[in-house]
Structure formats: structure tokens, C-alpha cells
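Task: sequence design from structure.
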């Protein structure tokens, strides 16, 4: 999936506001503590992204595939969006379809770097291992 590189402002101020359900909601990047506390909720979605990715590049992922991974894990996604926004899961789940989709797209935009890092981690580890084996083999 081709996503534009984040601008300097996006890096400095990643949080974004959106009006949904008659309220202005701030979508925030996950903190380290939240990442650790809610690891079990992240894991199924990350596994879905890894399955989509296979041995390819994040640029190869299509929007429809991400939407399917979101749908396959909707219970966790509702809770993860709630964590990111500070709203209740019920508030998120009961949004009208268009507002809910807009919120999830914004949530993905704010937190996609985190999920992308987690999804490509096995590929990076595999590449590092292969390179290390080549280096070790070349030095024998």
C-alpha cells in the first residue's frame, strides 16, 4: 500500500481531531505503556497484517486487505480505537457507519507506523539472520 511519507508536522504532532457522534474526539498514538498493557489486543490484528504481507513489502498491501484484517478482528479493533481516543468501546461501536469509517481511517493514519513496524518485524529478523549467516560463511 503506497502511503505518503509523514510530514514533519505529522511526526511532531501525530494526534488528530475528528468530530464523530456529535463530539470532537482526539485520536492519539499509542504510548509505550498502552502498547505493553494491550499487547494481547494488538496481536491478532498484527498477525492478520503479517499474513497479508507474507514475504512482500508493506507497499504491496492493498487497502481492501487492511479493511479485511480490521473486520476479522473487529472486537479488538473497537477496543483499540477506544484506547486511542479515550472513548468507551460502546461509543465507538455505536457510531453511524460513515463516522465510524472516518474514525477508523484516522486511527489507522495516526497509528499505522506502529502496526507496520510490528507487521514487518519478522521480515527484518529473517533478513538480519540471512545477512549474518552470509557474513559468517564468508569469514570461514
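Answer:
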Amino acid at each position: 500500500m503506497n502511503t505518503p511519507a509523514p510530514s514533519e508536522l505529522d511526526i511532531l504532532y501525530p494526534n488528530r481531531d475528528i468530530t464523530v457522534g456529535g463530539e470532537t474526539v482526539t485520536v492519539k498514538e499509542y504510548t509505550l505503556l498502552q502498547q505493553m498493557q494491550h499487547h494481547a489486543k494488538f496481536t491478532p490484528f498484527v498477525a492478520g497484517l503479517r499474513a497479508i504481507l507474507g514475504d512482500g513489502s508493506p507497499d504491496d498491501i492493498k487497502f481492501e486487505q487492511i479493511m479485511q484484517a480490521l473486520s476479522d478482528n473487529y472486537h479488538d479493533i473497537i477496543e483499540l480505537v477506544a484506547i486511542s481516543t479515550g472513548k468507551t468501546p460502546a461509543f465507538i461501536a455505536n457510531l453511524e457507519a460513515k463516522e465510524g469509517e472516518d474514525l477508523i481511517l484516522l486511527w489507522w493514519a495516526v497509528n499505522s507506523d506502529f502496526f507496520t513496524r510490528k507487521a514487518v518485524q519478522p521480515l527484518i529478523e529473517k533478513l538480519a539472520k540471512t545477512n549474518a549467516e552470509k557474513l559468517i560463511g564468508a569469514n570461514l
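The two ends are 41 Å apart (CA to CA).
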